[in-house]
Structure formats: structure tokens, C-alpha cells
Amino acid sequence: MKMRRVVSAMIAVFTLATAACAADVALTSIGQGPDAMMVKVVMRALKVVPDYDALMRPEALQNQKVLVAVVGGSSKGLGAAGIDKEEEVARAKALLDAAAKKGVKVLIMHVGGEGRRGTLSDLFINAAAPYADGMIVVDGGNSDEVFDKYADERKIVIQTAPNVKGTKEPLGKILADWNAAQ
After folding, report:
1. pTM value?
2. Which residue, 19, 102, 142, 172, is most buried by CB atoms nearer than 10 A?
């Protein structure tokens, strides 16, 4: 009986210690579109388990090496989250500022293609892209070259993919290059 308690206590301590450790990668949506959940599925295929929160706040950044911010505006998503576009921009900028101050690399992803572009998404792209240390954009998502402008300013190369599933290779490479692949 005593041995069982000791083993149970050890398992509990190990479980809590493991849960308390932050993942190397934080994942959030900027714009509250569904695209961050699709990126989370791609990460699962890479065996990367991110700290995911669609409404991630600056204090959630602990010991992560990378913040993946998936941009794509959704009026429905904003409504479900109970925030408006101005509040979302303010949240995004606060989170991205915190990442910059903590030395967390920022990967901006736009995986909605041309169909997820428009005035609302552009608002979030223009708020987030200036913080990018890397970018992955699916085909059609940069036809107006808005991402090029920020990539040139940041002196980074945009990685492209034909679709969300196709982001697996560039995402895996970037995370490995940034020592964040698990």
C-alpha cells in the first residue's frame, strides 16, 4: 500500500512537471479565422505539439522559441471570440511586441490563400507582418504582393506552398532551423 502511494505520487509529480514545461512553439490566430487550427493539424503531422490559444496574450509566452501567428480575418470568428477587429489588432500587437522583447522568433503564416484575403484580413496582415522573422504563404495569398513589402523590409524570404497541407515541409524546415522542432 505504501509503495503504491509512492509510485502514485511520483507519477503525479512527473505529470505536473511535464505539463508545466512550455512547448518550444506557441500558436495563435490573428484575425480569428479557422486557419490556425489547420496549421495545428500540420504541426501534429510534424510531431510538434504547440501551446495553442486562439486568443493568446503576452503573458502566455514563457520559454517558447517560436510564435507561429496565423493571419486570416473572420467576422464570425471575431464575434464568437467576443472581440472586435480593433481589439484583435491591439491583442496581436501586444503579443508580437512581447515576443520581440523576449527574443521569440515570429513566423507569420497565411494559409487561406486568395479566398481568405480582403479588407479584414489585410488589417491583420498589416498589423502582424512587420514582426515577421519568417513567413509561409500559400499560393494565391500574396497575389497583391503585400507580404513581399514586409519580407523586403525584414530581409526575409517568403516560403510558399500550394495549400495548407503543403506547408508541412517549409514549416518543418523553419522550426528545425530555429531549433524548435521536437
Report:
1. 0.86
2. 142
Cell numbers found for residue 34 = 479557422
Contact criterion met (CB below 8 Å) for 111 and 86: no
Sign of CA dihedral 178, 16, 98, 167: positive
* Side chain identity at residue 17, one-letter code: A
Residue 73: which of 37, 30, 38 has the closest Cα? Answer: 30
Euclidean distance between CA atoms 109 and 89, whole angstroms: 16
Which H or E run contains 169?
helix 168-177
For the stretch 34-65, pLDDT in tens is 999 999 999 999 999 999 999 999 999 999 99
Q: How many CB atoms lie within 10 A of CB 41?
A: 11
CA proximity to 25, closest of 134, 159, 137:
134
* CA neighbor of 36 nearest in space, from 101, 92, 93: 92
Max distance between CA atoms of the chain, in angstroms, equals 69
